[in-house]
């Protein structure tokens, strides 16, 4: 299959989820995840590393990774849904410096396969120049474009607004002062580079690699029309109805992508609240339904509130409806089916759900509750912002909520159905939490992913993805 260079967004919160999202989207569009990760032979024009397995998720050294995809259309389909992928590049040549890149471009096979095919009078082109860990001045960008003048005859046409082909130059730099590849530590002293064709080191930065080729697709590749990514319209600042624990819109879409949500999939959120995950799934064409024990959130009583930004702008007023359906009406999405239900006392009858995507209550801003009569956990005695009456359920420990949710999923997920959820953890006990999850549930679920997001205060949450493989279940050892 053709080789592509995937370029990831350096997301502050969700960067570790990038490979999970890419794999899941590749599977949706017919690519086996074992065929996705490329084996790049040494001494080729496109790379000098050999990768035969998925890279380590903790390797933050580069925002690029080689992948194999069937064609440009599949790459564009993945890019069109991804939150964490910035673009896909068809690399014509790469090397440790510009001279080696030029030498590769002069090879006959490169000229025949790429240059003669794309650089001709019938196609209009534009340039995209970008450096990682280094800021390029306008003149430096022009110098880099001029370096590749030998590729052109002078008859090609430039079109900045709507080019037929976007030529890209990527420079990847390494911070030599700290010997780190942390993307948040960009050294401003690396901004001056003279004679870049031969120089590979400038003060505290070293040129790691140069890539030159064709952009198959880049999200928001220029700011001429001030384009924004498609998911920005769902940002919480623009959402009409919010709740105390509304899930971030980017994380909602990432979880749906990892859950392989697609058109006509049946998606369920047992803790739907104001519908954060269901909005993302509905945008992707899924058939959505959800439940929540707290009728106040579903109907918009006291717990839900109208976005003050939209009130200030005059789009909404205080009298607007606060129910869960208001968000779907605002975005012109199909209305989901909503029921008031406790997952520990389900009214459903048979397995028909393709994926469960949810963010269970942690007991911090929203308490964990159940209709089952149990002894109240002493750790929840101080929570008074929810009434303890039977009408809204009894306070329930987070561990028991997760247990009830996984029992529910084992009964109502179809074979190979997925459950994607966020598991709250104490950071110094994370190993114990993961070990317990595997021990208690590995006979009915394949636990595919678990990656940590640190929240502060010694707390964090794991993004868990599990695939059902049986209708039997086991209990927690504590039960």
Automatic annotation (TrEMBL):
GO terms for biological process: methylation. GO terms for molecular function: methyltransferase activity; nucleic acid binding. It holds the Pfam family Tmrp11_N. It comes from Cryptosporidium andersoni. PANTHER family: RNA METHYLASE-RELATED (PTHR13370), TRNA (GUANINE(10)-N2)-METHYLTRANSFERASE HOMOLOG (PTHR13370:SF3). GO terms for cellular component: cytoplasm; tRNA methyltransferase complex. Keywords: Methyltransferase, Transferase. Residues 238-288 form the Ribosomal RNA large subunit methyltransferase K/L-like methyltransferase domain. InterPro entries: DNA_methylase_N6_adenine_CS, RlmKL-like_Mtase, SAM-dependent_MTases_sf, TRMT11_N. This is tRNA guanosine-2-O-methyltransferase TRM11. Residues 59-177 form the tRNA (guanine(10)-N(2))-methyltransferase TRMT11 N-terminal domain. Gene3D superfamilies: Vaccinia Virus protein VP39 (3.40.50.150). It comes from the Eukaryota.
């Amino acid at each position: 299959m053709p080789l592509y260079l995937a370029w990831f967004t350096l997301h502050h919160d969700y960067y570790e989820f990038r490979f999970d999202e890419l794999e899941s989207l590749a599977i949706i569009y017919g690519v086996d995840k074992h065929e996705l990760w490329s084996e790049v032979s040494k001494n080729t024009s496109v790379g000098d590393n050999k990768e035969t397995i998925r890279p380590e998720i903790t390797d933050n050294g580069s925002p690029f990774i080689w992948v194999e995809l069937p064609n440009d259309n599949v790459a564009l389909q993945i890019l069109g849904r991804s939150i964490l992928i910035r673009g896909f590049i068809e690399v014509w040549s790469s090397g440790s410096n510009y001279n080696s890149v030029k030498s590769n471009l002069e090879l006959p096979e490169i000229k025949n396969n790429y240059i003669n095919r794309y650089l001709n009078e019938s196609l209009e082109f534009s340039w995209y120049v970008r450096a990682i860990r280094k800021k390029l001045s306008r003149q430096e960008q022009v110098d880099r474009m001029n370096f590749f003048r030998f590729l052109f005859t002078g008859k090609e046409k430039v079109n900045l607004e709507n080019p037929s082909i976007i030529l890209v130059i990527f420079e990847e730099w390494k911070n030599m002062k700290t010997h780190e590849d942390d993307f948040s530590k960009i050294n401003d002293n690396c901004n001056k580079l003279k004679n870049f064709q031969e120089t590979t080191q400038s003060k505290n930065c070293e040129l790691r690699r140069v890539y030159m080729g064709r952009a198959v697709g880049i999200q928001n590749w220029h700011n001429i029309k001030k384009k924004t990514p498609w998911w920005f319209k769902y940002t919480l600042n623009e959402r009409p109805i919010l709740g105390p624990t509304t899930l971030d819109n980017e994380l909602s879409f990432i979880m749906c992508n990892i859950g392989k949500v697609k058109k006509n999939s049946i998606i369920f959120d047992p803790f739907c609240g104001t519908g954060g995950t269901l909005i993302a799934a509905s945008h992707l064409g899924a058939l959505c339904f959800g439940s929540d024990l707290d009728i106040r959130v579903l109907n918009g009583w006291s717990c839900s509130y109208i976005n003050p930004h939209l009130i200030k702008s005059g789009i909404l007023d205080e009298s607007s409806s606060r129910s869960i359906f208001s968000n779907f009406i605002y975005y012109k999405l199909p209305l989901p089916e909503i029921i008031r239900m406790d997952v520990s006392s389900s009214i459903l009858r048979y397995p028909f759900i393709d994926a469960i995507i949810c963010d269970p209550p942690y007991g911090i801003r929203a308490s964990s509750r159940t209709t089952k009569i149990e002894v109240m956990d002493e750790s929840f005695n101080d929570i008074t912002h929810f009434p303890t009456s039977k009408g809204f359920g009894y306070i329930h420990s987070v561990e028991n909520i997760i247990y009830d949710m996984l029992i529910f999923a084992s009964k109502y997920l179809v074979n190979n159905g997925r459950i994607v959820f966020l598991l709250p953890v104490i950071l110094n006990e994370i190993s114990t939490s993961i070990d317990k999850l595997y021990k208690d549930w590995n006979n009915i679920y394949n636990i595919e992913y678990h990656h940590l997001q640190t929240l502060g205060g010694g707390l964090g949450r794991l993004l868990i993805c599990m695939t059902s493989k049986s209708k039997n279940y086991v209990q927690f050892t504590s039960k």
